[in-house]
C-alpha cells in the first residue's frame, strides 16, 4: 500500500501485517461491514491503495438480470464503489466524500464476472490533500470475464468539510 493519508488508508494498512492468505478476507469483511450494501452484493475488494481501487463481482444468481448476466444496477454499484473507494483512500479526515454524478452507458452484453478499476492521478490526489473542498472526475474501467468493456462510466466525486456533530 502507498502512503496512508487518512483514517481509511491507515486502517487498511494495518492489514498488511496480517498473513497474505487471510488479508483479502479480512479486507472484504471490514469493508463490507463499513459499507453494508457492498456486503449484500458480495463485492470483492481486490486492490485498494491511494492510486487504484479494483473491485470485482461474481456473476451469481443474487446479482443477475433476466438474461443471466450481472444486473445493470450491480454494474453501477461496482463502478461507484471502485471510484468511491479510491476517493475514500485520499480524502482528508476532516472532509466527507460525496458522489456528485454518475453516468453509465451500457455498450455491450456482459459475460461472467465483472471487475472495475478506478484510478486517480497524482495531481488529483494532491488536490484532495491540499483543498478542504473540491471535485474530481474519477477514471474507471469496467471489464467482464472475457476482457470486454460492456459499460462506459464517468463519476464525479466531491469532498466537503465535515460539519461538527452537535
Automatic annotation (TrEMBL):
Q: What is this protein called?
A: DUF4442 domain-containing protein
What the entry lists under InterPro entries is as follows: DUF4442, HotDog_dom_sf
Show the taxonomic lineage: Bacteria, Pseudomonadati, Pseudomonadota, Betaproteobacteria, Burkholderiales
Amino acid at each position: 500500500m502507498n502512503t496512508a493519508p487518512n483514517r481509511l488508508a491507515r486502517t487498511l494498512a494495518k492489514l498488511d501485517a496480517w498473513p497474505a492468505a487471510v488479508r483479502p478476507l479480512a479486507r472484504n469483511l471490514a469493508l463490507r461491514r463499513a459499507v453494508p450494501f457492498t456486503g449484500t452484493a458480495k463485492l470483492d475488494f481486490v486492490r485498494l491503495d491511494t492510486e487504484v481501487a479494483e473491485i470485482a463481482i461474481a456473476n451469481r444468481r443474487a446479482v443477475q438480470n433476466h438474461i443471466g448476466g450481472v444486473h445493470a444496477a450491480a454494474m453501477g454499484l461496482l463502478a461507484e464503489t471502485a471510484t468511491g473507494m479510491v476517493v475514500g483512500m485520499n480524502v482528508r479526515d476532516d472532509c466527507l466524500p460525496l458522489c456528485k454524478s454518475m453516468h453509465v452507458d451500457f455498450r455491450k452484453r456482459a459475460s461472467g464476472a465483472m471487475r472495475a478499476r478506478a484510478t486517480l492521478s497524482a495531481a488529483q490526489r494532491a488536490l484532495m490533500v491540499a483543498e478542504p473542498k473540491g471535485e474530481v472526475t474519477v477514471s474507471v474501467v469496467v471489464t467482464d470475464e472475457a476482457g470486454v468493456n460492456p459499460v462506459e462510466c464517468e463519476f464525479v466525486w466531491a469532498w466537503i468539510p465535515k460539519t461538527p456533530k452537535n
